[in-house]
Design a protein that fits this description.
By secondary structure, this protein is mainly alpha-helical. The protein is built from 8 helices and 3 strands, in the order H-E-E-E-H-H-H-H-H-H-H. The chain has helices spanning 4-17, 37-46, 59-71, 83-94, 96-107, 117-125, 128-149, 157-170; strands spanning 20-21, 31-32, 35-36. The longest helix is centred in the last third of the chain and has 22 residues, at 128-149. The chain is globular and about 45 Å long.
Length: 178
């Protein structure tokens, strides 16, 4: 059974992940509720199930994929709210490894992408407001660099910033210009 913290964070994620999309500039390809076809295929294989189109993603499958793929691996369950939500949303939007590196940078841990005891200690010792702000600022800088380095992706910058600013608002931080 999913944790209450996971369940309370999921609506924010789904607000931004929507339904089925297959944008030609999105390197993730076909996606439904934020789950790419590749992720869905991998998950169904692990469950011993036949592959099928991501458009057929069931609600229970989507929740299981989010919990086992984006909540537990980056250790969101070890974080207090609202840092758990920021971390979860980043893992969904940018990948688990990048989310852990952003968290480590925000709390002053060694940045190696491995959420170990050193990272856990830095999280425990950090000022939550400062960590939230630093985490979101790191994410914004990454978006802006991504769009600048790959003009094909700049079409997504406004949406990325809208999502990040909504996240900032959700966790009590001021928003910024998109």
């Amino acid at each position: 059974m999913p944790s209450a913290d996971f369940q309370s964070s999921l609506p924010f994620i789904l607000r931004w992940e929507g339904g089925y999309v297959n944008h030609p500039n999105d390197p993730g390809g076909a996606t439904n509720k934020g789950v790419t076809q590749k992720v869905y295929d991998d998950w169904r294989r692990k469950q011993g199930q036949a592959l099928r189109d991501v458009r057929q993603l069931a609600e229970e499958e989507m929740q299981a994929i989010y919990e086992t793929g984006y909540w537990l691996p980056p250790k969101c369950h070890l974080l207090e709210g609202p840092l758990d939500l920021v971390h979860f949303d980043t893992a969904v939007n940018m990948g688990v490894g990048r989310a852990v590196r952003f968290l480590q940078k925000a709390v002053g841990a060694g940045v190696d992408g491995d959420f170990g005891s050193g990272t856990q200690q830095c999280v425990a010792d950090c000022d939550p407001g400062t960590a939230l702000s630093a985490y979101c600022d790191t994410r914004e800088a990454f978006y802006r660099k991504l769009a600048a380095d790959n003009p094909k992706l700049s079409v997504f910058l406004k949406g990325w910033m809208n999502r990040l600013n909504a996240l900032r608002e959700q966790v009590g931080l001021p928003g910024f210009e998109s």
